[in-house]
């Protein structure tokens, strides 16, 4: 009897929390699809606002996708060898570097951006290019890639596999690309999904670094909330959700995949 | 198969960062085509020795590793032309059985037909025919180690190195694979170095055995020499069970007085202890006994039984006795220890029977 009561209470609490989080999202989605939000749903459903967002902000969406993919490329090229280096190095500073990598996550994005502006702001060409924002995104997302790859590397018994490959005549490059990379794929995948998701949603750093010509999706979103009809802002949010939710689901799936492997 | 090559270590020592010495300066020669077993307890330096031979580790300055006449000290493992089998298999989980075995052949960029042919051959040798497409995690421990073995021999290495390859397997499988590895090594005729802490494995596989202790070779010899003429008490005790009888006095005619009786051993004059193996002691009627004692425990082993007999010494004597006869605890029994089975490490020049065994 007692356990039944407890179960009911727990279920109720869970439902309340879910509602608390889901209702605003649902309302926002509905707002983006209604003809006139102030009149309500009876004014009819429409894709007009979504269409209008596309007309107004398509370039921000493309830029976000471009940035996310470029950021992914850079974090893989830097992050995987970095993780491997940390794995192989038994020196004391390896730990320090691992901690240091987390710094950009802990420091407010605005501060990171300010530092970047102070350091590179005077190079006008660079300052106005999307590559400037890319630097900020890489700083912010790199630790996630390194951590994801490193954790898989640590459980994959890589040193032994490499010794075996070396005994069969494989040089360093053959070992790295033929044994190390394939055996930490699940970590790279998890890291990649994380990096893309974080890069697409990144606002703090980007907001400080953007120019009128280099606006990303979240910056455009803030812009539309401030200056457009509520329906347009909501439709914009809808587009953002459509982009990000599949990535979040994929992250969950990749996480399960990694656990199964070990 | 490729002609085999000898291995020579000259003055190889290994000191780890922090000053721990894993290996005292070591000289070792492995003849071409020979199987040498490095045997010892954990931490004795046997694995370090193997890793120095393989090239996974370098000896301290001054050490030298030769394959045949060629100095390979400065070469990393991938340039040394060795095949290695590891305790934990170290198979590539991202590849199928066939891809694992063919890995070294693909690195050598052999023609595809040649690879297929070799793959076929080694998979037949290790009895893995038909397993080529299997995933590694779908294999049992024994099958995994066969794949590892096939992978190592597929590249026709000059030297085969084994790092406790059977330690992770259960007893029955270990026995079977041990026999198979022995056959394979004889078939291939490749020079092999085999690390183990299991004396049965060492005796079954080794043409010679190097018993190691605390970073040194305590004794190097054929299995028979090691067993019957151990160089010191450590070796005697590590290779099989051994009884150690304290000599508490001497008769005028040279007989050695020990707890429970008297032994005749003219070749062991002046020693304070006498050693003998459990299986060399015979149970005889009390009237004919050299030593008498009381059975304190009998351990049934299946093919035989181990009797613990208290003769008044510090520890009971271990005796290997036939399994069908029964000696209840407390039984007084007589033991016969012929002179030929008694030995002492410092008097290795033992009897003729032992010498014959050693040469055979």
Helix content, binned percent of chain A? over 70%
- β-strand number of chain A: 0
How many angstroms separate the termini of chain B?
28 Å
Strand order of the largest sheet of chain B: 6-7-8-3-9-10
How many angstroms does the end-to-end distance of chain A come to?
Answer: 40 Å
| Largest beta-sheet characterization of chain B | 6 strands, mixed
* Helix-strand topology string of chain A: HHHHHHHHHHHHH
Mean pLDDT of chain A: 86
Approximate helicity band of chain B: 25-40%
Sum up the overall morphology of chain A in one term. globular
SS field, number of helical segments of chain B: 9
Number of strands of chain B: 19
Rg over CA atoms of chain B: 24 Å
Q: Biggest interface: chains and residue counts? A: A-B, 19 and 26 residues
Indicate the structural class of chain B.
alpha+beta
Principal-axis shape of chain B equals elongated
**Number of H- or I-type helical stretches of chain A:** 13
Strand content of chain B: 25-35%
Query: What portion of residues of chain A belong to β-strands?
Result: under 5%
What's the gist of this structure?
The complex is a heterodimer of chains A (about 260) and B (about 350). Chain A has about 260 residues and is an all-alpha fold.
Summarize the structure in words.
The complex is a heterodimer of chains A (262) and B (360). The longest helix of chain A is centred in the first third of the chain and has 41 residues. With 262 residues, chain A is mostly helical. Helices cover 83% and strands 0% of the residues of chain A. The mean pLDDT of chain A is 86. In chain A, α1 crosses α13, α2 packs parallel to α13 and α10 packs antiparallel against α13. Chain B has 360 residues and is an alpha+beta fold. The longest helix of chain B is centred in the middle third of the chain and has 18 residues. In chain B, the strands form four sheets. A six-stranded mixed β-sheet of chain B has the order 6-7-8-3-9-10, with helices on both faces. In chain B, strands 15-19-16-17-18 form a five-stranded antiparallel β-sheet, with no helix packed on it. In chain B, strands 2-1-4-5 form a four-stranded antiparallel β-sheet, covered by helices on one side. The C terminus of chain B is likely disordered. The interface between A and B is medium-sized, with 19 and 26 residues.
């Amino acid at each position: 009897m007692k356990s039944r009561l407890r179960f009911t209470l727990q279920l109720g609490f869970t439902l309340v929390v879910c509602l608390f989080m889901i209702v605003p999202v649902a309302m926002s989605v509905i707002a983006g699809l209604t003809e006139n939000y102030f009149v309500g749903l009876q004014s009819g459903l429409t894709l007009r606002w979504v269409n209008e967002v596309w007309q107004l902000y398509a370039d921000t969406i493309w830029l976000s996708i471009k940035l996310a993919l470029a950021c992914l490329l850079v974090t893989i090229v830097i992050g995987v060898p970095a993780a491997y280096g940390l794995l192989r190095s038994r020196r004391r500073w390896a730990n320090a570097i691992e901690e240091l990598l987390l710094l950009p996550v802990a420091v407010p994005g605005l501060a990171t951006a300010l530092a970047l502006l102070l350091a590179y702001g005077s190079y006008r060409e660079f300052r106005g290019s999307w590559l400037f924002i890319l630097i900020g995104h890489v700083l912010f997302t790199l630790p996630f890639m390194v951590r994801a790859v490193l954790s898989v590397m640590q459980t994959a018994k890589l040193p032994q596999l490499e010794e075996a490959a070396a005994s069969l005549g494989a040089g360093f490059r053959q070992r790295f690309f033929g044994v190390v990379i394939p055996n930490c794929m699940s970590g790279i995948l998890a890291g990649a999904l994380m990096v893309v998701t974080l890069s697409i949603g990144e606002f703090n750093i980007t907001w400080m670094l953007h120019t009128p010509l280099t606006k990303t999706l979240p910056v455009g979103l803030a812009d539309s909330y401030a200056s457009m009809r509520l329906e347009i802002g909501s439709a914009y949010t809808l587009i953002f959700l459509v982009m990000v939710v599949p990535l979040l689901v994929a992250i969950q799936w990749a996480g399960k995949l990694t656990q199964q492997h070990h | 198969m490729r002609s085999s090559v000898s291995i020579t270590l000259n003055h190889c020592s290994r000191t780890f960062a922090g000053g721990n010495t894993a290996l005292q300066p070591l000289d070792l020669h492995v003849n071409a085509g020979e199987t040498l077993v490095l045997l010892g307890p954990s931490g004795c330096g046997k694995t370090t020795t193997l890793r120095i031979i393989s090239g996974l580790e370098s000896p301290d300055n001054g050490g030298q590793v030769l394959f045949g006449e060629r100095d390979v000290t400065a070469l990393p493992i991938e340039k040394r032309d060795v095949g290695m089998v590891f305790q934990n298999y170290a198979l590539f989980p991202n590849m199928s059985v066939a891809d694992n075995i063919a890995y070294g052949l693909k690195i050598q960029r052999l023609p595809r037909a040649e690879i297929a042919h070799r793959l076929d051959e080694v998979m037949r040798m290790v009895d893995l025919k038909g397993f080529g497409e299997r995933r590694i995690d779908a294999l049992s421990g024994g099958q995994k180690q066969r794949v590892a073995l096939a992978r190592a021999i597929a590249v026709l290495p000059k030297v085969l190195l084994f790092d406790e390859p059977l330690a992770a397997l259960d007893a029955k499988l270990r026995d079977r694979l041990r026999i198979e590895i022995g056959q394979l090594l004889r078939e291939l005729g490749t020079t092999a170095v085999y690390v183990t802490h299991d004396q049965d494995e060492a005796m079954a596989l080794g043409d010679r055995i190097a018993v190691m202790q605390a970073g040194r070779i305590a004794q190097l010899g054929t299995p028979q020499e090691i067993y019957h003429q151990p160089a010191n008490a450590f070796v005697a005790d590590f290779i099989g069970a051994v009884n150690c009888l304290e000599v508490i006095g001497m008769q005028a005619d040279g007989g050695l007085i020990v707890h429970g009786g008297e032994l005749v051993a003219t070749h062991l004059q002046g020693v304070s202890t006498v050693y003998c193996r459990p299986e060399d002691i015979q149970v005889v009627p009390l009237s004919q006994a050299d030593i008498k004692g009381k059975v304190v425990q009998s351990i049934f082993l299946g093919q035989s039984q181990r009797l613990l007999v208290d003769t008044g010494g510090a520890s009971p004597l271990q005796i290997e006795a036939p399994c069908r006869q029964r000696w209840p605890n407390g039984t007084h029994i007589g033991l016969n220890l012929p002179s030929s089975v008694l030995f002492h490490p410092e008097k290795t020049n033992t009897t003729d029977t032992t010498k014959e065994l050693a040469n055979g």
